[in-house]
Amino acid sequence: MKQELIGGLVLCLIGLGLLFVSPVKLWTLTEKWKTEGGEQPSRKYVVLIRILGAVFAAAGGALAVSGF
After folding, report:
1. Which of 58, 68, 66 has the alpha carbon at shortest distance from 14?
2. What is the pLDDT of residues 8-62, one digit of tens each?
3. Dihedral of CA 13/18/21/26: which sign?
């Protein structure tokens, strides 16, 4: 019971972090060095980060609720 709650909260934090942190800043931190001359992340990257944030937050919420 406690593991589900902690795991759910961690997933929620990761998901909310992905939703509220700018994808451009995240891309600059993690991916910019891999591209030559790229100044901005692609539109697909931005959309994918937002979708993953929503999925992680929803999965974490469901896991945390099932822990009660």
Report:
1. 58
2. 999 999 999 999 999 999 888 888 888 777 788 889 999 999 999 999 999 999 9
3. positive
To the question of pTM greater than 0.85 for the whole model, the response is no
Contact 67, 26 (CB under 8 A): no
Contact indicator for 9, 64 with CB cutoff of 8 Å:
yes
- Per residue in 38-62, is it b (16+ CB within 10 Å) or e — as a string? eeebeeeebeebeeebeebbebbbe
Q: Is 8 in contact with 67 (CB distance < 8 Å)?
A: yes
The letter for the amino acid at 67 is G
Residue 16: CB partners within 8 Å, gap ≥ 6? Answer: 53, 57
